[in-house]
Write a structure and sequence with these properties.
Layout lengths: L13 H5 L15 E7 L5 E7 L1 H4 L4 E5 L1 H6 L5 E2 L16 E2 L6 E2 L5 E7 L2 H8 L3 E6 L6 H4 L15 E8 L5 H9 L3 E12 L9 E6 L4 E6 L4 H11 L7 E4 L15 H13 L3 E3 L3 H7 L3 E12 L5 E13 L9 H7 L10 E10 L13 H19 L3 H8 L8 E2 L5 E2 L4 H11 L2 H9 L7
Helix pairs in contact: 10-11, 11-12
């Protein structure tokens, strides 16, 4: 039987991009329209006690200066989490929403405080300097363990101990007999703690936007780089109380997205509202510094895997507890990623009969977190491979051998995974053998042994 990974597929989009003829958001009617700039909070946690926009409104070239109160006056809607999970006790997670700009409490550095629309970008930036803001700084917390500790600063009244949800899936409670049998046969407990560091997207193209009233449909046309223009249009239409067929979101070439551009960001609501309010085209050119604090981030989990292994090193039972950082507010798919998405690949390619996963979602004074590059799956893969290496160290077996001992065999396919999902094809041990052969593992090991480096 032959095995292969990957297939040559002809790419259709490369020609224009390679010769500089790509057309991105900022290429839509370049130079036309009014310029938008945003005032952001320098504090991670603060109370907004005063906002004076008068001087900025009187500045040269300024067409609009607004805070959240102005959007509230027009009944502009807020950003909603699109997929909630229930707590493990069956109770419903309290629903919270995110206003486009801060109303009273700042919850992360970079949170929007006000926006300016002016004739030029420089005029908009100059007007920002004239806005007077009073902040009352509050204690902040950025780590999931510290956020859930007694006495930690609280972000929302409805989330005690900053805990949004405690969700669970798996089979351990229904497989106690298997675990007891493994313990009686001499099984031992192996534990590993891992950190999936927070990832800050850094796409080639940031998130520029153009919004324009659309006279032919008496609605709104918007350009922005996104993987999901339909979803963005639906949410903007809801926020602005418009029929969906009156909102058209268009996506030209996108200079990288990786997941974080799928979801609705506060600036999209602001630009859509400003274009409707002024009746003219408006555009925002996001700079890289803004992107670091305003874009949706990824990962930021702290997890512990507890595995019961038999004398051969085979995992008989696995329990994983993950604390997932949601950031300062719940983005569209934030609660789905570490739970429903992550659980489907928790055990990856390994045959583990009894498995459970508990995920604790935590809010902190950091930018919001959502899907990024695999959306829950890389976190699971990293955890399992670290666990396999640790088992190899404890048992004295090679890293390759311990993986083969635990791998799903071809005869088990299709394989029903204990925490959801089905593997319907594949011969994992054979693929591993082929990979080692193609990589000339034996030759590689011999070469680095001469340098005193540990091998598999």
């Amino acid at each position: 039987m032959k095995f292969g990974v990957g297939q040559t597929v002809k790419r259709l989009e490369d020609a224009n991009l390679l010769i500089g003829k790509g057309k991105y958001t900022d290429d839509q009617m370049p130079g036309s329209g009014l310029a938008v700039a945003f005032l952001r909070s320098p504090f991670a946690h603060a109370r907004l006690t005063g906002l004076d926009l008068a001087a900025a409104r009187a500045a040269d070239g300024v067409h609009l200066v607004a805070g959240q109160a102005d959007m509230d006056a027009d009944n502009v809607g807020e950003i909603h989490c699109q997929h909630y999970v229930d707590n493990r006790d069956g109770s419903q997670v309290p629903r919270t929403t995110k206003p486009a700009m801060a109303r009273d409490i700042i919850r992360h550095a970079g949170d929007l405080v006000a926006m300016v629309v002016a004739g030029t970008r420089q005029q908009a930036l100059d007007a920002l300097e004239l806005i007077e803001v009073d902040f009352e700084p509050l204690d902040a917390v950025v780590d999931v363990y510290e956020a859930t500790a007694q006495g930690a600063p609280q972000l929302y009244d409805c989330y005690p101990n900053n805990t949004v949800f405690s969700w669970e899936a798996g089979t351990i409670d229904t497989a106690r007999a298997e675990i007891d049998k493994a313990v009686a046969a001499g099984a031992k407990l192996v534990e590993v703690d891992v950190i999936n560091s927070r990832v800050m997207p850094n796409a080639m193209e940031t998130r520029p936007m153009v919004a324009q009233p659309c006279e032919d449909i008496n609605g709104l046309r918007m350009w922005c780089g996104t993987q999901g223009p339909v979803g963005i249009a639906e949410q903007i239409a809801t926020a602005l109380l418009m029929p969906l067929d009156k909102v058209r979101v268009r996506t030209p070439d996108v200079g990288g997205s990786f997941g974080f551009k799928i979801f609705l960001h506060p600036e999209q609501i602001c630009l859509a509202w400003a274009a409707r309010r002024l009746g003219v085209l408006v555009r925002w050119q996001q700079n890289r510094s803004e992107a670091f604090v305003a874009d949706l981030h990824g990962r930021d989990n702290k997890s512990r895997a507890s595995a019961m292994i038999d004398r051969a090193g085979r995992i008989q039972a696995l329990k994983v507890t993950a604390f997932a950082n949601m950031g300062a507010w719940l983005s569209n798919f934030s609660t789905y990623i570490p739970t429903m998405s992550g659980c489907r690949t928790l055990t990856t390619i390994y045959d583990i009969p009894a498995t459970s996963l508990r995920v604790v979602g935590v809010v902190t004074n950091t930018p919001a977190v959502d899907a990024y590059r695999g959306a829950g799956r890389p976190e699971a893969n990293y955890l399992m491979e670290r666990l396999m290496d640790h088992i190899a160290d404890i048992t004295g077996k090679s890293r390759i051998e311990i993986r083969k001992i635990n791998m799903i065999k071809a005869s088990q396919i299709p394989y029903e995974m204990p925490v959801g999902g089905t593997i319907d094809s594949g011969d994992m041990p054979a693929l591993l053998d082929m990979a080692m052969d193609k990589a000339d593992l034996a030759g590689f090991a011999a070469s680095i042994l001469r340098r005193g480096v540990r091998t598999v």
